[in-house]
Specification:
Number of strands: 39
Structural class: alpha/beta
Distance between the termini: 91 Å
Number of helices: 9
Helix content: 10-25%
Largest sheet: 12 strands, parallel
Radius of gyration: 32 Å
Shape: elongated
Oligomer: single chain
Length: 466
């Protein structure tokens, strides 16, 4: 979903330090579902134009992480949420007609559909401002929404400034607003720091609008979990888990089989096709793509990787920035490093590592091998313990193994090297020169057998020292 076409702009408040997180990192750079909190907020307001992000603590890191995604203004010093919006005033005031969304950058569970519903409510009500509220039996430290005898919003009071009667109110302010731009500009000019915190509260804008006889509406969330902010490491973990659960529910509704959702992690940008099977303990991060009929896990970890239709990623495999072809089998205990490409129906077995290597269709590296910077043709068989020696201490060197070649167990292949189509390499060989097609290469020392040597040694030991 997108806000495109609604002629709405957005201001995201992202200046907070997140003191209770006990981290030097800006709060909005903390990760939920593998992505910064601010990433979730930016996706929620996708289509708004322009998007302004108010930064403060660790501002340079936030600006670097999201360069090109929004325009930034700095709040320095931080004097409250109202002051943060004042800092953004030059950005959103350029288009004084229309609507501006204002929300916190640490609300990762807020859905784009909820913002659309907020804007619909705002348009229908003709309000100067429309806020999102929610209900809890105990609203704790959240600001309370106060209503008049007719049920109309009359003010928001921060918990620290609220009376006992006001703190008993169950409806609380989520911190997401749709404002008419000019109404917001007028109210900002009347803010003052006359409160327990000595700050400029954005919530006071609501009271000023009501005092000016401007209508303020409220859109109440059906699911209060959408309003979950992040102030502690525990809240960050809860938000991340809820995001993953939401994603897994959607995937299962589309036909993806998730055997154990409680132990499965799927990142924000991972794509899974109907019919894919995800086994327990699996993590899918980055832009990973799992095709229909593929099975991943248990206990597999994939980052920015593509798995073809009907492929199998077995137990305890790690794949990063690689491609696995249709019907291929990986693992168990395999490691595919960046730029590894495994062809259709190929096999990478237990304790095999690939780096920047193409393993052709139907080729096999069943066990205990390292293959780096190599191009390996279709239907090649690599015996146990095969190693490509591609690094000479200064440079990496390429290797090519032709289609249908057979490499015996415990072979050491020293690059740069070409092994021709259909060639054989004897087990235990160290190969340093090119092997022509259909040839046999042996590179091992001559075996020497000394009959009776072991028996004589045992007899000598039995006689003891001379």
């Amino acid at each position: 979903m997108s806000l495109a076409g609604r002629r709405v702009q957005a201001v995201l408040l992202a200046a907070g330090k997140g003191t209770r997180l006990k981290s030097a990192k800006a709060k909005v750079l903390q990760l939920a579902q593998g992505a910064p909190l601010l990433e979730h907020a930016l996706r929620a307001v996708a289509g708004a134009e322009p998007v302004t992000v108010v930064v403060g603590h660790d501002a340079e890191s936030v600006e670097t992480a999201f360069a090109g995604r929004a325009q930034f203004v700095r709040q320095d010093p931080p004097l409250g949420t109202g002051h943060a919006v004042m800092a953004a005033r030059p950005a959103f005031a350029q288009r004084a007609e229309g609507t501006v969304l204002v929300l916190y950058g640490d609300l990762p569970l807020l859905r784009p559909a909820t913002l659309e519903a907020l804007l619909d409510t705002h348009a229908v009500s003709g309000a100067a401002a429309t806020l999102i509220s929610a209900e809890l039996p105990d609203a704790g430290a959240y600001g309370r929404v106060l209503r008049d005898a007719h049920g109309e919003v009359r003010a928001i009071v921060e918990a620290k400034d609220a009376s006992p009667e006001e703190r008993a109110e169950r409806e609380w302010n989520v911190g997401v607003y749709a404002f008419e731009v000019q109404a917001l500009l007028d109210a900002l000019g009347r803010l003052s720091p006359q409160n327990a915190q000595g700050e400029y509260y954005l919530t006071d804008v609501i009271g000023h609008l009501v005092a000016a006889k401007r209508h303020v509406a409220a859109f109440r969330l059906a699911d209060a979990r959408e309003a979950l902010g992040v102030n502690t490491a525990a809240e960050l973990a809860v938000a991340s888990r809820l995001l993953v659960e939401r994603r897994l529910d959607a995937l299962m509704a589309e036909g993806v089989v998730v055997e154990d959702p409680a132990s499965t992690f799927v990142g924000l940008d991972a794509r899974l096709e109907p019919g894919a099977v995800i086994r327990p303990g699996t993590l899918l991060e980055g832009r990973t793509h799992i095709a229909a009929g593929a099975t991943v896990g248990p206990f597999a970890h994939l980052v920015d990787s593509e798995v073809g239709a009907g492929a199998t990623i077995l137990d305890h495999c790690l794949l990063r920035e690689c491609v696995v072809g249709a019907g291929a089998s990986i693992g168990p205990f395999a490691h595919l490093r960046p730029q590894a490409r495994v062809g259709a129906r190929a096999k990478v077995g237990n304790f095999v590592e690939l780096k920047n290597t193409y393993l052709g269709d139907g080729a096999k590296a069943p066990h205990l091998s390292y293959l780096g910077d190599a191009t390996i043709g279709a239907d090649v068989n690599l015996g146990a313990g095969t190693i490509t020696c591609n690094y000479d201490g200064t440079s990496k060197h390429p290797m090519s193994i032709g289609e249908g070649a057979f490499v015996g167990s415990n072979a050491t292949l020293v690059a740069p090297l070409t092994i021709g189509m259909g060639a054989y390499v004897g087990a235990g060989s160290t190969i340093t020169e090119d092997v022509p097609a259909d040839a046999l290469a042996l590179g091992r020392g001559r075996q020497v057998v000394k009959p009776g040597w072991a028996k004589k040694r045992r007899e000598a030991k039995a006689k003891g020292p001379r």
